[in-house]
Amino acid sequence: MKRLRANKMTRCALALCLCAALTAGTEFAVSAQTLPEAIALHNSAAAGDAKDLDAAVSMLEALSEADPENAEIVAYLGSAYAITAREGRNVVSKMRNTNKALRHLDQALEMEPDNFSVRMVRASVQRNLPPMFNRADDAVEDMVVLDRLFQATDKAPRSMAEAMLSIYDHLLAHAASRGDWAAGRDIALDRSK
């Protein structure tokens, strides 16, 4: 099995898998089961499995065409384009796919700004972009909103708490002055047990 180059996105694959749990090349029939399948392929591609990337993009494009107002589909499609950019060899196509990814991620956020999954996907992509895209501050802002959403959820699922652990680690390292991230991390750690 061909393995894609691993980088920071590999660490985010687990968070995206957990995020997907919250959402409970060929043509695909669009059904209620298709989104979880597409997310699973996406997460496999994010973790470095080359064989799943094209299938994830194809499924997510079909889902987006069938349900263009579904913010989670739009966000995951944007993330799939970011993975395509990451793995591309041609600089022009890397830029085109990155810009397409960012447009989809921004659109998904406009559609549902308080959707935990959308914020998690967008934050994960943005924090791994090269500095030339100037998205580090947006990633931190998404993470601050994720903290607010997490703290407002009395009975957050274990998967949400586990996903928040990497968010708090990032906030502790990159935005320590903006909040008590250690306390948030402790709450997430307790809820993830």
Kindly list the characteristics that best describe this protein.
mainly alpha, Serine Threonine Protein Phosphatase 5, Tetratricopeptide repeat, 193 residues, disordered N terminus, globular
Commentary on this structure:
This protein is an all-alpha fold. It has a single domain, classed as Tetratricopeptide repeat domain (Serine Threonine Protein Phosphatase 5, Tetratricopeptide repeat). It has nine helices and no strands. The longest helix has 21 residues, at 91-111. It starts with 7 loop residues before the first helix and ends with a helix. The model is unreliable at 1-29 (pLDDT under 50).
SSE blueprint:
Elements: H1 8-22, H2 34-46, H3 53-66, H4 71-87, H5 91-111, H6 116-126, H7 136-151, H8 158-174, H9 181-191
Task: Give a nutshell description of this structure.
Helices cover 70% and strands 0% of the residues. The chain has helices at residues 8-22, 34-46, 53-66, 71-87, 91-111, 116-126, 136-151, 158-174, 181-191. It has a single domain, classed as Alpha Horseshoe (Serine Threonine Protein Phosphatase 5, Tetratricopeptide repeat).
